[in-house]
Amino acid sequence: MTDQPNTPQLYLITPVGAAASTLGPLLAEVMDRFPVACLRIPGAGTEEELGRIADLAREIAHARDVAVVIEDHVLLAQRHGLDGVHLTNGARGVRHARKELGQDAIVGTFCGASRHDGMNAAEAGADYVSFGPCGATALGHGELAPLDLFQWWSEMIEIPVVAEGALTPALIGQLAPVTDFIALGAEIWSQPDPVETLGNLWR
User: Fold this and answer.
1) Rg for the chain (alpha carbons), in Å?
2) What span, in angstroms and rounded, lies between the C-alpha atoms of 72 and 191?
3) Is the pLDDT of residue 12 over 50?
4) Distinct helix (H) and strand (E) counts, the chain
5) d(C-alpha 170, C-alpha 201), whole Å
6) Which residues share a beta bridge with 131?
7) Helix, strand, or coil here: 201?
8) Strands 128-131 and 67-71: what pairing?
9) What is the DSSP letter of 10?
């Protein structure tokens, strides 16, 4: 997929609550097998455990020229030498994160299914905007990010867009022409063989 022009890149999200001691080998295997463009660390966990995961992820990802962002924790991103943050509250916090991390840092943000929030985030200086969930899930507010939101964004807005949340092979096929990145995380880590599952999703 990523060898073709105008197709999205893979944006990988590490498993929520993963212990650094067990994450390393699995993460390295996935990143050796698939061309990951960006790695995101969920923000849940203690400061100490998140710090260990941040150091581990940075070491593995940077060795493969892959950027690493962490959800919401600006200070942890600075302290552990990460490439930036992924904010989970829309446009709020974009300017603050940019001020703290500098112009070279990655500042992305999740905007649910809101075109308005996405536009505000882009105007505030976000490097990318993420919409989701794209598939049916009981998590969150239950509002899905529809295909036409991505179609409109890709035609009207220059800021890259990420599709995430409950993705299936069929949804990825539909979204591929109108997204810059496909974010996968729980879809693979919840399965017995994450590498095989990712292979089935990412063709």
Assistant:
1) 16
2) 27
3) yes
4) 9, 8
5) 9
6) 163
7) helix
8) unpaired
9) E
Cis omega before residue 192 (within 30°)? Answer: no
Q: Kind and range of the H or E element at 84?
A: strand 84-87
Dihedral sign for Cα 167, 67, 8, 195, please. negative
Q: Which two tokens stand for residue 194?
A: 């994450």
pLDDT tens-digit readout, 108-153: 999 999 999 999 999 999 999 999 999 999 887 779 999 999 999 9
Is the whole model's pTM more than 0.85, yes or no?
yes
DSSP three-state, residue 202: coil
DSSP state of 200: H
Is residue 161 within 8 A of residue 179, CB to CB? The reply is: yes
Q: Which tens digit of pLDDT belongs to each residue from 39-84?
A: 999 999 999 999 999 999 999 999 999 999 999 999 999 999 999 9
Whether residue 158 contacts residue 15, with contact meaning beta carbons closer than 8 Å, is answered with no
Residue 6 pLDDT = 61
Distance CA 137, CA 167 (A): 10
Fill in the amino acid letter for 82: L
Alpha helices in the chain (DSSP H): 20-33, 47-62, 74-79, 94-101, 115-124, 147-156, 169-175, 186-189, 194-201
